[in-house]
Write a structure and sequence with these properties.
138 residues; two-stranded antiparallel ribbon; single chain; Non-ribosomal Peptide Synthetase Peptidyl Carrier Protein, Chain A; mainly alpha
């Protein structure tokens, strides 16, 4: 029974750490943010890219391996969806990079001016004076 209590106490300590909670919030916000970026890519960027390339809709691009018949559906490689997902990934990665870079600028501490070296102790001052006097005697 004592092991069970210590297990749950350890779990409670783990789950209440700031890093775990931050990670959970990041995952939730990341999921919501991904849908925004997916919409940006699908509804704005990909139509623009398709227009540049002569009105191509990338999601419909495919390589038909076996044409379909009434009984058998076609076998095809839908590389247009792959292009769409690569663009989605690159935009999400770029946006996250920009956000992390911005956050790091906020958290970056200003470099402190170098502090002056501490004043020498009384013993060091006295030893320096003795050394200088001995040099003068030679």
């Amino acid at each position: 029974m004592n092991k069970v209590k210590s297990f749950f106490a350890e779990f409670k300590e783990f789950i209440s750490r700031g890093n775990v909670i931050d990670l959970a919030v990041g995952v939730i916000i990341g999921g919501a943010f991904t849908s925004i970026v997916n919409s940006l890519v699908k509804d704005i960027i990909m139509p623009f890219i398709g227009w540049i390339f002569g009105g191509i809709d990338f999601t419909n691009l495919k390589y038909v391996i076996t044409p379909g018949t009434e009984e058998i559906p076609e076998a095809a490689i839908y590389y247009g969806n792959f292009i769409q997902n690569v663009v989605n990934f690159l935009l999400v990665a770029f946006t996250i990079f920009c956000m992390v870079r911005l956050i790091n600028k906020f958290h970056r501490k200003k470099e402190e001016a170098p502090k002056a070296p501490p004043a020498p102790s009384k013993e060091e001052v006295l030893l320096t004076e003795i050394r200088d006097l001995l040099k003068d005697m030679k």
